[in-house]
Amino acid sequence: MSIFSEAWDWLGQPNRWSWTDPAGIPYRTVEHLSFSALSLVVAAALTVPPALWLAHSRRGAFLSSTVVNLGRAIPSFGLIILFWFLASRWELNTDFWPLLVALVALALPPLFTNTYAGVVSVDADAVDAARGTGYTEAQIMFRIELPLALPVILAGARVAFLQLVATVAIGAIVNDGGGLGRYIVDGFAQGRAGYGEILAGGVAVIVLALLCEGLFALVIRWAVPRGLALRNARQPQVL
Length: 239
Description:
Blueprint: H1 3-11, H2 25-56, H3 61-73, H4 76-89, H5 97-120, H6 124-132, H7 137-171, H8 181-189, H9 195-223, H10 226-233
Helix pairs in contact: 1-9, 2-5, 2-7, 3-5, 4-5, 5-7, 6-7, 7-9, 7-10, 8-9
Transmembrane segments: 35-55, 67-87, 99-122, 148-174, 198-224
Pfam families: BPD_transp_1
Domain ABC transmembrane type-1: 29-216
């Protein structure tokens, strides 16, 4: 029997599509997305406000480039293992905190740099006009710069979320939940008998990533006015 037949047989088992069975694909998918979404929200809360303020005040250009370079250089698997050891040493929940902290750390660079780049690229004439009409600095940030930078910020969130979806699968190595990546880890543990499960799990992660990419594209298209999106598409983005 080929590996593709094994994967098809594995997918055809009734319990694979149960919403209540922790080993079911729907259950694992929700678990996978929950971890990814939580990490993105935490990273955005930590990153967007300071990046917005630094860009508004035209400070932190060096910090922005340093953050994105560090984000590209640090391997995600290394972060997960590092935080797993730290959580074990501090007697924390090793099924939750190591993966969450690692995912948040991975999401910080694209969110920070895109927020900074988006605000810096806002037309200076629009900002000057707002100041001339009596806007405060806070009003300029939240009523002028943030809305105009929204397409670039959402592009950073899109990149970050797709990276998180891929990394949650790797996190199954240290996380008993692990989302869809649990199938890959469990399949490797079975040796040759688990090849079908490995293939099915890998395909499930790919399909989920593609669906999230399409969904994010729809959200950006819905949230950003067409004219503003076209304007920002002509400007450089730091991802």
